[in-house]
């Protein structure tokens, strides 16, 4: 079978993850060159290599160029296998992004699958575990997916050491979802998970987020004992027809107040945008929507991940995804 040719110069790890998912589902092999070409450290890093190796295992596939630093990869998938699998990233690389690489394929497996994934669960370069559990998966359930995730151990960057377990039941195909009305705001909740740091840091972060966007359900969560240390601010909004979570992570030389204000402002901006889908979920819904063969949603102005992700999807599937302004700062994304 002829190789699909992909140029990763302008994209990041998401291009590779989407290509791996689609190659497993469609059986079409691909060659990607210039992987993460414009990143400070181009080529495959530990988290990307783990995605490649995991895709090989669950699909009896092969990968040429699967090594750290490689800027070219040829991947060929076989038959998708369910069963029990364990994958360890070895760094604080995101277990949540690894899960999102494997989940679409396992929905098309011949048997249910259980995954144990080890690495980072709270990483500033990826959605936190709670986003997957509270925002991403509930949206997929509405499309007919049967999947769940459980947090066994939090893993903060840069140490990692987190563990999640995932269960996936194959389905008969995803259903199209139209998500253009979010309904009324029903609740707000604020969580500040922390480990091995003075408690006043998390408290200041929480207070700053509340000053930006008040809510009655706010608490600090101690995630000890465990490896490493870290803190993040997770702010969630539930609507009658949608849910969104924003996050901000503690980092060296950045005050707790600044982190808390950022999480609060991000959610406040989303609420003001009057759309049902946030920027992170936008990128993550493109592939399920395409696999369902239809659907649409309203979101905020999309970031650069969206066109690069769409370009990969359209190489594998016989459809087009349109991105168009819908007025008043809203954007509609849907299949053509």
Describe what this molecule looks like in 3D:
- This protein has 3 domains: 79 residues, SepF-like protein (Translation Initiation Factor IF3); 93 residues, UDP-n-acetylglucosamine1-carboxyvinyl-transferase, Chain, CATH 3.65.10; 89 residues, RNA 3'-terminal phosphate cyclase, insert domain (Dihydrodipicolinate Reductase, domain 2, 2-Layer Sandwich), CATH 3.30.360.
- 33% of the residues lie in helices and 29% in strands.
- The chain is built from 8 helices and 16 strands.
- A 4-stranded mixed β-sheet has the order 1-2-4-3, with helices on one face. Strands 5-6-8-7 form a 4-stranded mixed β-sheet, covered by helices on one side.
- Strand 12 and strand 13 form a beta hairpin.
- Helix 1 runs parallel beside helix 8.
- The mean pLDDT is 96.
> What is the overall number of helices?
8
CATH superfamily (homologous) name of the largest domain: RNA 3'-terminal phosphate cyclase domain
CATH architecture descriptor name of the largest domain: Alpha-beta prism
CATH topology of the largest domain: UDP-n-acetylglucosamine1-carboxyvinyl-transferase, Chain
- What order do the helices and strands follow? EHEHEEEHEHEEEEHEEEHHEHEE
- Helix/strand-derived category reads alpha/beta
The amount of helix comes to 25-40%
Shape: globular
How many strand elements? 16
Integer count of domains:
3
Main sheet record: 4 strands, mixed
CATH class assignment of the largest domain = Alpha Beta
């Amino acid at each position: 079978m002829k190789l699909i040719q992909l140029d990763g110069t302008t994209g990041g790890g998401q291009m590779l993850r989407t290509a791996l998912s689609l190659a497993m589902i469609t059986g079409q092999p691909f060659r990607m060159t210039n992987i993460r070409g414009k990143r400070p450290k181009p080529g495959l890093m530990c988290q990307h290599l783990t995605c490649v190796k995991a895709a090989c295992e669950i699909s009896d596939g092969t990968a040429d160029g699967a090594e750290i630093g490689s800027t070219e990869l040829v991947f060929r998938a076989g038959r998708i296998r369910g069963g029990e699998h364990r994958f360890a990233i070895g760094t604080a690389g995101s277990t949540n992004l690894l899960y999102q690489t494997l989940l679409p394929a396992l929905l098309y497996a011949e048997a249910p699958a259980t995954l144990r994934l080890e690495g980072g669960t709270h990483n500033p370069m990826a959605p936190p575990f709670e986003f997957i559990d509270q925002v991403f998966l509930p949206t997929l359930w509405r499309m007919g997916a049967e999947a769940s995730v459980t947090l066994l151990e939090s893993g903060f960057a840069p140490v990692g050491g987190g563990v999640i377990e995932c269960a996936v039941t194959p389905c008969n195909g995803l259903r199209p979802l139209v998500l253009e009305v979010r309904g009324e705001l029903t609740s707000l909740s604020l969580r500040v998970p922390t480990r091995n740091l003075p408690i006043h840091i998390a408290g200041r972060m929480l207070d700053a987020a509340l000053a930006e966007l008040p809510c009655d359900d706010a608490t600090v969560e101690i995630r000890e004992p465990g490896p490493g240390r870290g803190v993040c601010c997770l702010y969630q909004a539930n609507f009658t027809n949608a849910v969104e979570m924003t996050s901000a992570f503690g980092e060296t030389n950045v005050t707790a107040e600044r982190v808390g204000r950022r999480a609060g402002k991000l959610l406040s901006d989303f609420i003001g945008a009057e759309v049902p889908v946030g920027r992170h979920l936008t990128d993550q819904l493109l592939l399920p929507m395409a696999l369902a063969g239809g659907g649409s949603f309203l979101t905020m102005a999309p970031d650069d991940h969206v066109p690069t992700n769409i370009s990969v999807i359209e190489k594998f599937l016989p459809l087009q995804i349109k991105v168009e302004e819908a007025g008043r700062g809203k954007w509609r994304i849907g299949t053509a």
